[in-house]
Amino acid sequence: MLLKASVGECQLPNGLIGANITIFARRQQPLDVARDEILAARASTSQEVRAVSLDLADAPQVKKIFGSQPRLADALYCVAGGTSTETGFLADISPIDLEQCMRKNYLTSAYSAQVMLKMWMEDDKESQNRSQQTPIHKVRQIVFVSSAAAFVGFPGYIAYTTAKCAVRALADTLRSEALRYSGPTSTYRIHCAFPSNFISSAFMDEQKSKPELTKRMEGTTASMAELSRRLHSSKQVASYIIAAVRRGDFAICSELEAAVLFANMIGPSPMRGLGIVDLFLALLMRFIFWPIARRRFDAMCVKDGTSRKTHEASV
């Protein structure tokens, strides 16, 4: 198994114990720390865990390094990203912040998925040519990690929300494209997770630069100790994602608030399960909850803007 991870968020859920894993990120030292954590949780000494330094936003390097691995992956988890230094309002952040957030959240996923998809397709062709017998059927999986931020436009997340919306669009479109490649040799499956805030080193960094308005709107004004008690851990979120992938879910929402927001923004994505719960939540959100929430959020923005103008006038 090939696991593309952002270092610091790498947790090994039970569903991955026993798999051969390769993790990629730019910095080798944090990679080595993550590798040691995974090794400590592995099921047996025969399980291979590799840590490879790679800039996942560099398409030629992704192609080169992925192609040099000792075995072809069965699954690709695209979890790199975050917005530890790009939070802020559009008028306050720099063009570099916009570009950097798109690179580390969207391009890392797009480049990795494209390279892996091409490698799988080539392997399918070779499998058919190598043997006259029916080849062993394989399941190829790409799992994108977007964010619940893709469902709601909170001021302060403008760089991050845009990038995560792009990841969601990538997953939606690739889900349809992947149907073209499934056949007697392989089945291609695409999944996309939309976690809400959870406790991680990246979240702690975000809290340092996140506007107070953003914190009030998303409910993260409490102390880190209180947030740690209230929010899920990265391991809990990872375990939920793995379980949902094994169930075959496309849209994965590990928290109730993410599930409710997804129901309000289903768009081209397939509904979860039979669709009954999503349809019910969509009706509640569209006609009752969201109109109220939107007006509340708009009022908060107006009040924050008034406070800013008053402060600037007094300086």
UniProtKB/TrEMBL annotation:
Gene Ontology CC annotations of this record: endoplasmic reticulum membrane
Q: Which domain of life is it from?
A: Eukaryota
In alphabetical order, the GO MF annotations are: 3-dehydrosphinganine reductase activity
Which Pfam families does the record cross-reference, listed alphabetically? adh_short (PF00106)
Which chain regions cross the lipid bilayer?
273-293
One record GO biological process: sphingolipid biosynthetic process
Q: Supply the Gene3D superfamilies for this chain.
A: NAD(P)-binding Rossmann-like Domain
What InterPro entries does the database record attribute to this sequence?
Answer: NAD(P)-bd_dom_sf, SDR_fam
Q: Which UniProt keywords apply?
A: Membrane, Transmembrane, Transmembrane helix
- Please give the name of this protein: Ketoreductase (KR) domain-containing protein
